[in-house]
């Protein structure tokens, strides 16, 4: 049995189709600058002219979750409805940079399709965990393996994928196995679901976190409870 070690972000070598290579920074150095089309089209207000290349900020309300949940959190509900960072290659570039994968993957249509398929598979296993959902995730996992070796500093675990475009997707799927192995009860979706579709890894001592963020969904729920209480105790306005 392969021991899944949480090293994806530490390794800098990848094997694709039997060929071992280190990341080619020259070739993949698109991460420094890209056009801000995504921000302009989706974020409204602070539009940036498409003619001025610049680094886009990650527009998502929740970042920093483990990779598998961070991939799920590329979809969220904003003021004007549901948003999707992975609705374009530009958005993919933003996500790869946030995920620390900008120098290990190319923002292109093939990588985007692999990630979208993987996101659907992850959402299905998190939400219903059926055999069909597991099959879909296992298809993603079949694109790669973790190869173990002994390096000068000690044991190395290096992900190998059959196609470089599958590396980010495979790492996300593999990361989900890591969380399940640790404690599946800590993989949660925000208690405000379906008004909020974000997911998080509960690292609280007693596993009691309920909201993606207290500032957003937590306070909204508190206000709603307060309103319901004041109404039921006769504090509401007369009909
Ligand atoms: Zn939430």
Automatic annotation (TrEMBL):
SUPFAM superfamilies: Jann2411-like
Annotated ranges, domain Zinc finger CGNR: 186-229
Pfam families in the record: ABATE, zf-CGNR
Domain of life: Bacteria
Protein name: CGNR zinc finger domain-containing protein
Organism field: Streptomyces thermoviolaceus subsp. thermoviolaceus
